[in-house]
Amino acid sequence: MKMIISELSILLSEGKVISGKNQFYLRLIEFLRIYLLALLLSFFSGILLFTFFEVFNIEKPVNVFLNSFRQKSWVYQIALACLYAPIVEELQFRLCLKYSKINFAAFSGIWLFYFLKKFMTGYGLFGELNHTSLAVGLSLIFMAMIYSFLHENGDINNRLEKFWRKRYKVIFYLSVIGFGFLHITNFDWRLSTLLLIPVLTLPQTSLGFMLGYVRLKYGFLYAILLHAGFNLSLLCFQI
After folding, report:
1. Whole-model pTM above 0.85?
2. Which of 40, 57, 123, 160 has the most CB atoms around it within 10 Å of its CB?
3. CA pair distance 183, 200, nearest whole angstrom
4. Is residue 100 a part of any domain in this protein?
5. CA distances, 214 to each of 33, 61, 178 (Å)
């Protein structure tokens, strides 16, 4: 645990961590420790959040998403929290922490998918009322175009790779803060909600930091697993 905390301190100050190359069982033990630490950070973040609203006597904005989520079936809740959200959000915020043509293409495609799902209306590819299939199709085409462009234009790809290496610390913190701040969309929109973004999203921001650590140290799939396991624990606690 001391080594993990030491590495987290280095990550906090420098924005990077050395990739782990331990044997599988040692990596598993470390992963479980990180998982428990992520839960502990979330717990303390929640206490700070509760204390803030109690001390300053401020009404906490309504979490519209959570209220709607709790009304869904348990199958829907598990699918969304432990499959869809970890995969999509890790593609959005953690895949880009290590540059490659395929990573950049997938990162671009998933963000296009997010905006299409958020703002596009109409029918799907097969005439269904939900336009998800159309958003997926357009995002995959866009992803293929980006990858093809970078593959054929090595100079631009090299410049992007150099930019990533030079700005890795900025990119890391943007991913952490962006992940946290995105969750403000879960709340009802008021001016007070916007002013309280750093406070309301503190638990997600702390989780984003831990997910970034796991992604850099062990790889992208481990970040998805940590995200899914974390959400599953919150679901169990909720039940």
Report:
1. yes
2. 160
3. 9
4. yes
5. 11, 31, 17
